[in-house]
Amino acid sequence: MFGSRMRGEGFVLLVLLLACTCLPHVYAMIPEPAVTLPVTRLVRQFYKKNHLCDDVEVYIKYQVKSYWTKDRSITPKLLRLLYSDCFVTGCDASILLDGPNSEKTAAQNVGLGAFVLIDNIKEVVEARCPGVVSCADILNLATRDAVNLAGAPSYPVLTGRRDGFTSSAASVDLPSPSISWESALAYFQSKGLDVLDLTTLLGAHTMGRTHCRYILDRLYNFNNTGKPDPSMKQSLLDQLRKQCPPKTRKGQHDPLVFLNPQSGSKYTFSNSYYSRVLRNESILGVDQQLLFGNDTSQITEEFAAGFEDFRKSFALSMSRMGSLGVLTGTQGEIRRNCRFTNKDNPNGK
Asked: Could you list the residue ranges forming a coiled coil in this record (predicted)?
């Protein structure tokens, strides 16, 4: 398994990310070979090596830090935005495109944020390096910088992505947060990722919030039984029922609850998410499902016991996710405005 995961781009990334300090315990748990993603034309520091925009990563990091110091919730917002982009048609910034039927209008993408930050970063970058830095790369780099500020490792982001031309709500196949671990794994495998990626990337739920409507089934009608999810700890069930009534009154907004109360409004990146899974204190159903798969439960135990194992695996899985379905070379374009293709840009630039 370990050798398989290190082939191709995985080997290069692992050397950069872990400096040869691997994850032997985690990798040894997984009996089947991990998926090796197709080789891409992405490279480290693409814009510097090609003398297109030498300091673009510095510009982006500065903008992200300025925003993060005022609103730390930008970290989970960027994580969700990147996931919503890469898992649909690939990391092509199609989630950023406006339009009456674009991806961002899909039911699964209600509540997405961080668009304004991406707009601001793009404006700064265009002023310094017009027409050369893609929105897809900006989104990947900004997410890396935001999670690093929250406590994750500053993993290397390979760059050279280009932006897609289309965005359709009909193409959004993001699954429900109440699916089983088997369905979640099948979905990840359909994108070219594996069980370690699944268990690792769900750890992003160590911070952020969710609307009550996504957990009402667990609280009141699990699998249409008319009863709560039996895997949820009773004290957590009592607490969430106070925050999430079965029905909201007319005009009342759907309440938000923290995915990890231990992180709460501090939005800190930690392995406490996995400890909560082990204690049956997960908020989302898919998170609690990690206990029911042999591999996922073992990885969960490993990450709960060792923060560094989780951090290193998170760095690699984020890089793997960031290589899904990328456009490079002459594919796609470099948008001047992340919300519009160049052809449809109302400002003509």
From this structure: none
